[in-house]
Amino acid sequence: MISESPKEKPRFKLHPVAILNSQRLRRSLMDTYDQKSFYKYGIGIILLILSIGSLFYTDKLVEELEEREEREVQLYAEGLRYVVNSPLDENFNVIYQVIEDAVNFYQIPAIYVDENNIPNPNKNIKFPDKVSRQERERIIQERLEEMKLEHPPIPVELGKGRAGKIYYSNSFLLTQLRYYPFLQLSVMLLIGYLAYLAFSSARKAEQNRVWVGLAKETAHQLGTPLSSLMAWVEYFRSDPTIDPSIAEEIEKDVIRLEMITTRFSNIGSIPTLRQEPIAMIVANFINYLEKRVSSKVKFEVHNQLAEEQTTLLNKNLFEWVIENICKNAVDAMSGVGQIHVTLQAPPRAKEIWIDIADTGKGMTKAQANKIFNPGFSTKKRGWGLGLTLAKRIIENYHAGKLFVKSSEVGKGTTFRITLNADILEGS
């Protein structure tokens, strides 16, 4: 357990104007984020409505076309009945040919079966080239069995108690139209998915520009007062009437500000990653951080990693992540409680897990889902950017993950960082 600082360091209070500005920025970021989410869901709902409407409309067309094809086959059956039962001196060939042409026009596959259950004439049945008679009969029989499952047969009264039957199946056009809505729905879903990817990519690109611009400008603005502060440190040291410890304390804060400036300047640039002993970095930084927060917050580091365990890190940025999570934990506990940092390597996985658990007020599931959104914060003061930047640093620069492992209202929250594990050569 890291030793407790005997004396809590005074903390500066934000000016009311700074607090107001931070709240305005946070609301602006949240409004922008929510507005874009609304557009995303709106596009999805519109596509869904269009798809459902298309399905109902096409289904109605299919029903109407199916009824029309059934009427055509019934006319074909009537034509056969008149031809068979008409006197020899009556000529129905013209009428029958018109009906037959209608069946052929719609390409409705049909097979007439006589009273002896023998297939005779057939319409719109396709056969391979140079097919034998036996093969032709086999194909007709197979199609006939399929037709029996599709539609009930249409009877053809032949007189004297005799009756034939016409079996048929849907035309190729009707079959196409029946499956068209599903094809259309698939295309719409694909378009929606591509639109979502494009929207997300554009949003991330825009966020990247905002973060980079904000970070670079912050680093630039800090540069001038830092140079002035360093000059004042040297002036205080040169004045024998001023207590030297004052200059030392100011210098510590200046060094701290320089580190913060370096962090901001690294945002948007490809950071340099080095093999670092992860447990040592975490322990040293927690020891440093403990002296700069409330003395009523107890830190405990539980290291379950091998001594030689390393990973690729940018030390400055990684410490920034730990600081953001821990300071959020301190605020969640109102400056009183415990923070447990556990480092472990899961079996059969080339990963390192760093769990940071607090005994604070915890979060609801809805809050946990939004905790990394820009501008979201459960505090009245704050920019709502710390955890957002922490997540980007871990996932974009270190190829790891940062997420809320668990949270329970009134009991606390646990954040988990996962990193790729490496072992020093020769270990």
Automatic annotation (TrEMBL):
Positions of the Histidine kinase domain: 217-423
Example GO molecular function: protein histidine kinase activity
Alphabetized InterPro entries for the sequence: HATPase_C_sf, HATPase_dom, His_kinase_dom, Sig_transdc_His_kin-like_C
Domain of life: Bacteria
EC number: 2.7.13.3
Single GO BP term: phosphorelay signal transduction system
Regions that span the bilayer: 38-57, 179-199
Keyword annotations of the record: ATP-binding, Kinase, Membrane, Nucleotide-binding, Transferase, Transmembrane, Transmembrane helix, Two-component regulatory system
UniProt catalytic activity: ATP + protein L-histidine = ADP + protein N-phospho-L-histidine
Any Pfam family: HATPase_c
Entry keyword Plastid: no
Keyword Transferase: yes
PROSITE patterns: HIS_KIN
Name of the protein this chain belongs to: histidine kinase
Organism of origin: Dyadobacter soli
